[in-house]
Design a protein that fits this description.
This protein has helices at 11-19, 27-30, 37-47, 83-94, 98-101, and strands at 2-5, 23-26, 50-53, 72-75, 105-108, 113-116. The protein has 117 residues and is an alpha/beta fold. It has a six-stranded mixed sheet, sandwiched between helices.
Length: 117
């Protein structure tokens, strides 16, 4: 799956996504880490990529209704150990394809993944 990685996502997580076979583009690599949130969602839609972020602001469905973008995954880290989060993310991505994530907001933590339409 093609993923756009927000500047706030750890390198460990982006490296993990590459290791499990996803095509990853980092905002930092594009030199666009200063984009505003709406511009990031627009860029992801233009590139047909799912946004991966740790910015909880993207979870605000009033400000960013899922129908207004092409898919976003917000990672919620509750511990310093990312192993559980990475496993939950791997399982979620393994069971969902690009089409199933269009116009969806997904919030993932170590224990669960919630999908909002």
């Amino acid at each position: 799956m093609k993923l756009l990685i927000d500047h706030c996502v750890s390198k460990r997580t982006s490296d993990f996504l590459v290791s499990i076979g996803h095509e990853v583009t980092l905002l930092k690599e594009l030199g666009l880490e200063t984009l505003d949130d709406p511009e990031i969602l627009e860029l992801a839609a233009t590139r047909d990529e799912v946004l991966i972020t740790e910015d909880r602001g993207f979870g605000n469905v009033v400000k960013y209704p899922p129908s207004s973008h092409q898919g976003a995954i917000v990672l919620i880290i509750r511990t310093r150990n990312r192993k559980g989060l990475h496993e939950a993310l791997r399982q979620f991505l393994q069971n969902n394809d690009r089409e199933r994530l269009r116009q969806k907001l997904v919030v993932i933590n170590e224990q669960l993944a919630r999908v909002r339409k």
